[in-house]
Amino acid sequence: MAFLRRKIQPFFSTFLNPTPKFPVPKFLHSRAQSSNEILIDAISDSFKKDHTWDTLTRKFISLQLNHSLAEQVLLRLQQPPHARSALNFFYWSAKTKNLHHHLSSYCIMIHILVRAQQLADAKIMLESVLKKNETDIPKLSVVESLLDSFKVVPSSPLVFDLLVQAYAKLRMLEGGFEVCCYLEEHGFSLSLKSYNLLLHVVQKAGVNCLVWRIYEHMIEKRKYPNEDSTQTMISALCKEGKLQVYVDLVYRIHGKRCSPTVIVNASLMFRVIEECRIEESVGLLRRMLQKNLILDTIGYSLVVHAKLQLGDLESAWQVFEEMLKRGFSPNSFVYTSFIGAYCRQRRIQEVDRLLQEMENLGLKPYDETFNHLIEGCAKAGEMRESASHCEEMIRRGLVPSCCSFNEMVRGLSETGDSKKANDLFTLVLDKGFSPNEITYSFLIAGFGKEGDIQEVLKLYHEMEYRSISPGLLLFESLIKSLCQCGKLGEAEKFFKLMKERSLTPSEDIYEALITSYCGMGDQTRLSLLYNEMAIRGFKPTTLFSCDTSTKSAKV
């Protein structure tokens, strides 16, 4: 604001009003000020008369136009009846006087146009100024300048809606959202139309993370969604491939089909809770319940889930008891959330009790329930129960998550039951399971430990057939397994291959190779491996001295 005020001071004021060394007659300043006013009047009056550019150029051929004078002329023409004259002057001064208008001049002109309801011209100018300043100035400079000039040319808050809409049209998406937040902080609330346009463009661009941030911001600022907003968010869920996930989630809670609005808002709540932003989730839920954007039973269930995410079991049970007292039925989502919480604490007896209670109530465990059971039992070392839950899951036509299945495979392989892990692996593959590098790494490590080199190599080639690119973890399991089985030639082949693929061998790989070569008494190869370790900054945990017949370790 201070900058703009300085800009619209009389053109010669700073020149004619220094601190004088000698007395200066006061009428000199008045005369200069008067002269400047006369010039501004002459220019503005001429443009009000709709003269042609040629006539105006001849009339003001000797005019030395600068930014300060130009802005004062614009301000003189700011009233709605003179908006076209102001626009004419703006373009004339740029074309004939080669004046490169400052951002502040653009913003004054935009306000004049919006105030006069010349919205088409205002939109063109907004897009022009955004393109011009996209890389040259900080992101918020345009909105800051518009806010400053709004105090001088009081147009309408509509100007800020047009600004956000221009950002959307130009696909300047992050910038558009930043401007929304900045305007809200400065007391300007955008229209639902502007938010919907920004949502629509962001969704079409496939920036799903930003779509949900904008939608959450809308509800925080009490810009409640309408049918257009909901349709955009349903499209976002479709694009993410998660619509059916959340349709199923609300059905498990409510027991009936729900409206698209409820599905979208439950999805938002679930995302915020999963990100452990519990305080934000409470505020969002309160607003949603006030406007009936979400059902009470879903609200209660999500609060229980949020408490469990924080590890507050006691508080979660209190909310659950209150939910039952208010006449809401227990549901499979809430029970699954409790099962997950107890699994994370490895309280398997409580998990079994909850599962039995759930089934007694006629509530069906679903994929997430079984994933908690498989992973929780495996982490607690209850491998028989983990495998049993996996088999039951498969029997019901469900496929475990990669994370839970890998945890079970790890446990079975470490306890010497790689065959069981591999049999279950075959079953889930037939059901459409998609393994990753970790799955094969655990299986290879397990069979390597048991000395089954054929199964080790078979799994590696199967992984390659599935076009899963081996990384450090896989090569580490493979090379260590080959060393354990005495297949140093094969181990060296894969050691060379991983380096060809620009993968840096781990310290464990070097230790496995060194241990094997020490057993063979190959002092030359041993020295080379030690040197490589030193170059890579590794320090062997055990120092070996070898001869051709014995191996001794010096710790």
Topology:
Layout: H1 2-7, H2 13-16, H3 26-48, H4 53-59, H5 67-76, H6 83-96, H7 103-115, H8 119-132, H9 141-150, H10 158-169, H11 173-185, H12 192-205, H13 208-220, H14 227-240, H15 243-254, H16 260-274, H17 278-290, H18 296-309, H19 313-325, H20 332-344, H21 348-360, H22 367-379, H23 383-395, H24 402-414, H25 418-430, H26 437-449, H27 453-465, H28 472-484, H29 488-500, H30 507-520, H31 523-535, E1 543-546, E2 551-554
Antiparallel strand pairs: 1-2
Helix pairs in contact: 3-5, 5-7, 7-8, 7-9, 8-10, 10-11, 10-12, 12-13, 12-14, 13-14, 14-16, 15-16, 16-17, 16-18, 17-18, 18-19, 18-20, 20-21, 20-22, 22-23, 22-24, 23-24, 23-25, 24-25, 24-26, 26-27, 26-28, 28-29, 28-30, 29-30, 30-31
DSSP summary, beta strand count = 2
State the end-to-end distance: 74 Å
Helicity, as a percent range: over 70%
Largest beta sheet: what is the strand line-up? 1-2
Concise summary:
The chain has 31 helices and 2 strands. Strand 1 and strand 2 form a beta hairpin.
Explain what this protein looks like in three dimensions:
This is Pentatricopeptide repeat-containing protein. By secondary structure, the chain is mostly helical. Among the domains are: 1-18 and 27-153, no CATH class; 330-428, Serine Threonine Protein Phosphatase 5, Tetratricopeptide repeat (Alpha Horseshoe), CATH 1.25.40. It has 31 helices and two strands. The protein has helices spanning 2-7, 13-16, 26-48, 53-59, 67-76, 83-96, 103-115, 119-132, 141-150, 158-169, 173-185, 192-205, 208-220, 227-240, 243-254, 260-274, 278-290, 296-309, 313-325, 332-344, 348-360, 367-379, 383-395, 402-414, 418-430, 437-449, 453-465, 472-484, 488-500, 507-520, 523-535, and strands spanning 543-546, 551-554. The protein has a two-stranded antiparallel sheet with strand order 1-2. β1 (543-546) and β2 form a beta hairpin. α7 (103-115) crosses α9 and α14 packs across α16. The chain is elongated. Residues 1-32 and 547-555 have low confidence and may be disordered.
